[in-house]
Write a structure and sequence with these properties.
CATH topology of the largest domain: Rossmann fold
Distance between the termini: 18 Å
Order of helices and strands: EHEHEHEHEEEHEHEHEHH
Number of domains: 2
Radius of gyration: 20 Å
Number of strands: 10
Shape: globular
CATH architecture of the largest domain: 3-Layer(aba) Sandwich
GO molecular function, one term: glutamate-tRNA ligase activity
Family: Belongs to the class-I aminoacyl-tRNA synthetase family. GluQ subfamily.
InterPro entries: Glu-Q_tRNA(Asp)_Synthase, Glu/Gln-tRNA-synth, Glu/Gln-tRNA-synth_Ib_cat-dom, GluQ/Sye, Rossmann-like_a/b/a_fold
Organism: Caldimonas caldifontis
Helix content: 25-40%
Protein name: Glutamyl-Q tRNA(Asp) synthetase
Structural class: alpha/beta
Length: about 300
């Protein structure tokens, strides 16, 4: 018997929600409501230098104005460091996590020595320099292995409810990735896996731009003995240049003066429609539409 449905929306408080954020939030809420499950909100403020003061409360207010209210009080990653530390200790004890002394410059030099030039915005595949030890250098970060004790490479296969069958060779396309950063902050990959496991998340519905993270997260789930949720990655909202709408590219804050209109616009990206009406009627129609389309 499968566990009762628990979904979540996990925004980073680097600014207010924009139109693209609402698509992901609405999709995760609709999936939970259509399946009679619980919907949670987690503020992913694990990277304080990027966070904007007050953005977390603004995001919660924007969600509430759109009728998207979590079934439990929100949680903040910044208050959960002890859980991440426990997970790292487990990975160390099992031989899967190791200290790394490499800077980005060191990694680029090691890759260049192999004839590999790191492309801007591309994945910087870690070559495993510190896997066998630090050679007397001070540790900067902690990484997780993407090869097993017998040096077998690790590849992850998974199925997305929208994108279908997916495959990623972690060893070749990512390399051993960071769990705790050189600045002492927890890496997103570890934090999200620990939080999803601790909160009992069964279904993750999020933007397609995060699909590339899924294999890394499944790898950590398996190492930590956590269940792997079901995944659905939603279409992205694009700007006039065809780029993903984001805070980094100056996406305007979500206008919630007419919440029903904002929700209908987000729903259209998901291939759903609802007649004009009050917010409650729009959301009810969209739940029925989601159930017909995705379940």
């Amino acid at each position: 018997m499968s566990a009762p449905y628990v979904g979540r929306f996990a925004p980073s408080p680097t600014g207010p929600l924009h139109a693209g954020s609402l698509v992901a939030a609405l999709a995760s809420w609709l999936d939970a409501r259509a399946q009679g499950g619980r919907w949670l909100v987690r503020i992913e403020d694990v990277d304080p230098p990027r966070c904007v003061p007050g953005a977390d409360r603004l995001i919660l207010d924007q969600l509430a104005r759109c009728g998207l209210v979590p079934d439990e009080p929100p949680v903040w990653q910044s208050q959960r460091a002890a859980l991440y530390a426990q997970a790292l200790e487990r990975l160390k004890a099992a031989g899967w996590a190791y200290p790394c002394a490499c800077s980005r410059k060191d990694i680029d030099a090691a890759l260049a020595a192999r004839g590999i030039v790191h492309e801007r915005h591309g994945e910087r595949v870690y070559p495993g320099t510190c896997r066998a030890g630090l050679a007397g250098r001070p540790a900067r970060a902690w990484r997780v292995r993407t090869v097993d004790a017998d040096h077998h490479l690790i590849a992850i296969d998974w199925t997305d409810r929208r994108l279908g069958r997916q495959h990623q060779d972690l060893s070749a396309t990512v390399g051993d990735f960071v769990l705790k950063r050189a600045d002492g902050l927890w890496a997103y990959q570890l934090a999200v896996v620990v939080d999803d496991g601790e909160q009992g998340i069964t279904d993750i519905v999020r933007g397609e731009d995060l699909a590339d993270n899924t294999a890394r997260q499944i790898h950590l789930q398996r190492l930590l003995g956590l269940p792997t949720p079901r995944y659905l990655h939603t279409p992205l909202v694009l700007d006039a240049q065809g780029e993903k709408l984001s805070k980094q590219t100056g996406a305007p804050a979500l206008d919630t003066r007419d919440p029903a209109a904002a929700v209908r616009a987000a729903a259209s990206v998901l291939g759903l429609q609802a007649d004009a009406g009050d917010l409650g009627d729009v959301l009810a129609a969209l739940v029925a539409g989601w159930r017909a389309r995705w379940l």
